[in-house]
């Protein structure tokens, strides 16, 4: 994917949004392309939702510029922007039925009733809720409300769809179903999805690219595998999946070079103490302090002789014997698994 | 591991209070009965009982010669209710109540809207205080104060004179029906006092209804292309409408039944409340007083069924 040749759908340049002393969004730069599934990932209070609300127009930036398809939209109210939103609480109008909810955007635009009804039917088919037009939102399940909210946002054919933690209220099974469905709808209609989530697994599953937010700033932007395999900051290494962070003297001893490194627990293997070491591998010896059985995996906490602890995850294959607590082991991993990260907090 | 001594309460026999709690915990229906017995008794016997006694009395009638209430079922009293003079009273009261209700709603909505949507925490508190403060002082005192404000020598007349607009005031007072010798002796003045007295009962329910409209619904409407006016008409107002109806039930029924304000402010024309007061007092015609009381009940019944048909309770 070469980004230079693609149309920019959303562009944020040096965007800030301050609420008093709180820097909710702090000098954010983003470029989202047409047809991209882009996730804003971060813990609560990291500025990802404010960022989405800035794109929707519910918030105005304190400073900086926001462009939608090359047009500056700072100061433009939400009703004049070619984007639509799926809200976290769905925000379905309780006094209207499903059909009226979905057709609301068309009613606003004075689309004739007959056309409105056809398009509402099409949308109900798209989100797989045929025949539900006359139900009230209160009669629907969480997953169904979610679909209605999606249909309502898509009926205006926006060029960018904003989704604010839309799956947060659903149970795990339904969430996984909706993840697949959202992704397939996005691929079918081919518009840009901007997806806010705090769930790193969800972001990795669905996104073409991810921006990881922390304290109002973007820590890293990249594809899911870039974010996971090559985190550039300590925060990303710890927030997306888990990492062993090595720094200082022990880092230099183990990796052979100074700096701060992140090592994914599943990249480390446990071998017998006497096992020979292949080329390009790092190793360390230690004692297993804790064994946590997780079904598919087992997680070991290994206390190294140098003073650091390393977490190791091993898949429970039928051949692998579970190592006992207190046994001495040797840990080996490939030098390429040592990911240098910025030393910051 | 050292053993932790068990808490003292587990070793001693349970206290009486704890035994009572356990007794009720095991019998949830009995607890419910104990909790509701007194209010049910009040609601069932005192409240509904007196209301039905009132309804029954309206079917008795007063013997014109002896002045004795005849305790037999008859429609005589209702016949005398539907005389021209009494119907004038009913129509006058209903029209007044309708005007008061509409005016209260028009005045209350922006205040309630400001309180719910824009006011800061502090301002909101002050506004609640301002709305509720009049209710802390005596209703009678406030009505008499208004009589002084509206009087010929009162501050309103003075103010109009100060602006050189006394001609305008006299012109308004010269109008038929609503006019009079001064504001305190006119239906217009009575209307103003009614609006003042009942306004809080309109502001509070509308405010409550507006507070319950999630901000995200307004965002959603705007997001789907609706300008603020459209959002107000299609989303905010329909969702706040139950609050308007709740408020109007207060202002409408309170105006229908009030007998103090028409006695203190206005001209000699009678209102339902005064008619009830006069019939049960000096005239000794309890059946007719009861029949007069049935009128607001019936009107409110009709009013609520219209409100229901308008979809006032759909959003509840």
Describe the structure in your own words:
The complex is a heterodimer of chains A (345) and B (316). Chain A is 26% helix and 32% strand. Chain A is α+β, with helices and mostly antiparallel strands and 345 residues long. Chain A folds into two domains: 3-231, Rossmann fold; 244-340, OB fold (Dihydrolipoamide Acetyltransferase, E2P), CATH 2.40.50. In chain A, α4 (113-126) packs across α5 (142-154). Helices cover 73% and strands 1% of the residues of chain B. Chain B has helices at residues 8-11, 16-25, 28-57, 76-81, 84-118, 121-136, 139-150, 155-162, 166-173, 187-211, 215-223, 228-257, 261-264, 272-280, 286-309, and strands spanning 61-62, 69-70. A two-stranded antiparallel sheet of chain B has the order 1-2. Chain A binds chain B through residues 56-58, 77-79, 83-85, 87-89, 91-95, 104-105, 107-109, 152-153, 156, and chain B through 214, 216-217, 219-227, 230, 234-235, 238-239, 311, 314-315.
In short:
The complex is a heterodimer of chains A (345) and B (316). Chain A has 345 residues and is an alpha+beta fold. Chain A folds into 2 domains: 3-231, Rossmann fold, CATH 3.40.50.300; 244-340, OB fold (Dihydrolipoamide Acetyltransferase, E2P) (Beta Barrel), CATH 2.40.50.140.
Summarize the SSE layout with pairings.
The complex is a heterodimer of chains A (345) and B (316).
Chain A: E1 8-19, E2 22-33, E3 37-41, H1 48-56, E4 63-68, E5 71-72, E6 83-86, H2 98-102, H3 104-108, H4 113-126, H5 142-154, E7 160-164, H6 172-189, E8 192-197, H7 200-206, E9 209-214, E10 217-222, H8 224-229, H9 234-239, E11 244-246, H10 248-255, E12 260-263, E13 269-271, E14 281-293, E15 297-304, E16 309-315, E17 328-334, E18 339-341
Chain B: H1 8-11, H2 16-25, H3 28-57, E1 61-62, E2 69-70, H4 76-81, H5 84-118, H6 121-136, H7 139-150, H8 155-162, H9 166-173, H10 187-211, H11 215-223, H12 228-257, H13 261-264, H14 272-280, H15 286-309
Antiparallel strand pairs in B: 1-2
Helix pairs in contact in B: 5-10, 5-12, 6-10, 8-9, 10-12, 11-12, 12-15, 14-15
């Amino acid at each position: 994917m070469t980004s230079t040749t693609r149309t920019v759908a959303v562009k944020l340049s040096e965007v800030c949004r301050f609420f008093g002393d709180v820097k909710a969004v702090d000098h954010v730069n983003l470029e989202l392309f047409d047809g991209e599934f882009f996730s804003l990932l971060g813990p609560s209070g990291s500025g990802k939702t404010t960022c989405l609300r800035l794109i929707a127009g519910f918030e105005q930036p304190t400073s900086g510029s926001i462009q939608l398809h090359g047009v500056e939209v700072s100061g433009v109210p939400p009703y004049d922007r070619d984007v639509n939103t799926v809200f976290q609480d769905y925000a379905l109008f309780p006094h209207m039925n499903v059909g009226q909810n979905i057709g609301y955007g068309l009613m606003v635009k004075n689309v004739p009733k007959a056309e409105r009804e056809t398009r509402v039917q099409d949308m109900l088919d798209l989100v797989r809720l045929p025949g539900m037009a006359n139900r009230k939102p209160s009669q629907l399940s969480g997953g169904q409300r979610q679909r209605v909210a999606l249909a309502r946002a898509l009926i205006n054919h926006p060029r960018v769809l904003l989704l604010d933690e839309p799956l947060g209220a659903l149970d795990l099974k339904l969430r996984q179903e909706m993840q697949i469905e959202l992704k397939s709808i996005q691929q079918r209609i081919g518009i840009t999805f901007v997806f806010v989530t705090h769930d790193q697994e969800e972001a990795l599953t669905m996104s073409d690219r991810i921006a990881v937010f922390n304290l109002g700033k973007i820590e890293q932007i990249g594809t899911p595998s870039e974010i996971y395999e090559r985190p550039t900051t300590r925060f990303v290494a710890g927030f997306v999946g888990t990492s062993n962070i090595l720094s200082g003297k022990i880092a230099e001893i183990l990796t052979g070079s100074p700096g701060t490194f992140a090592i994914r627990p599943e990249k480390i293997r446990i071998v017998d103490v006497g096992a020979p070491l292949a080329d390009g591998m790092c190793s360390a010896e230690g004692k297993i302090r804790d064994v946590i059985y997780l079904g598919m995996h087992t997680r070991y906490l290994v206390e190294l002789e140098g003073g650091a602890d390393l977490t190791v995850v091993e898949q429970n294959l039928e051949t692998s014997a579970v190592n006992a607590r207190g046994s001495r082991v040797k840990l080996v991993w490939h030098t390429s698994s040592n990911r240098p990260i910025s030393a910051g907090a | 591991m050292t053993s932790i001594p068990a808490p003292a309460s587990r070793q001693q026999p349970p206290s009486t209070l704890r035994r009572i709690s356990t007794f009720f915990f095991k019998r949830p229906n009995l607890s419910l009965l104990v909790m509701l017995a007194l209010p049910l008794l009040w609601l069932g016997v005192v409240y509904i009982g007196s209301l039905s006694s009132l309804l029954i009395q309206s079917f008795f009638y007063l013997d014109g010669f002896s002045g004795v209430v005849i305790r037999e079922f008859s429609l005589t009293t209702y016949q005398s209710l539907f005389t021209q003079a009494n119907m004038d009273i009913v129509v006058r009261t209903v029209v007044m109540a309708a005007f008061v209700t509409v005016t209260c709603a028009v005045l209350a909505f922006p205040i309630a809207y400001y309180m719910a949507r824009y006011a800061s925490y502090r301002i909101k508190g002050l506004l609640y205080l301002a709305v509720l403060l009049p209710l802390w002082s005596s209703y009678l005192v406030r009505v008499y104060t208004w009589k002084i404000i509206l009087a010929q020598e009162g501050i309103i007349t003075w103010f109009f004179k100060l602006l050189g607009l006394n001609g305008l005031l006299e012109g308004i007072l010269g109008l038929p029906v609503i006019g009079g010798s001064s504001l305190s002796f006119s239906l217009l003045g009575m209307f103003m006092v009614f609006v003042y007295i009942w306004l809080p009962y309109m502001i509070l329910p509308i405010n409550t209804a507006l507070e319950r409209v999630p901000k995200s619904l307004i965002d959603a409407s705007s997001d789907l292309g609706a300008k603020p006016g459209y959002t107000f008409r299609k989303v905010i107002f329909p969702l706040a409408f139950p609050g308007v109806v709740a408020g109007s039930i207060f202002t409408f029924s309170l105006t229908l039944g009030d007998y103090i304000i028409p006695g203190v402010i206005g001209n000699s024309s009678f209102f339902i409340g005064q008619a009830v007061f006069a019939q049960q007092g000096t005239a000794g015609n309890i059946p007719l007083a009861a029949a007069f009381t049935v009128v607001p009940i019936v009107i409110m019944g009709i009013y609520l069924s219209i409100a229901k048909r308008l979809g006032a309770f759909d959003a509840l």
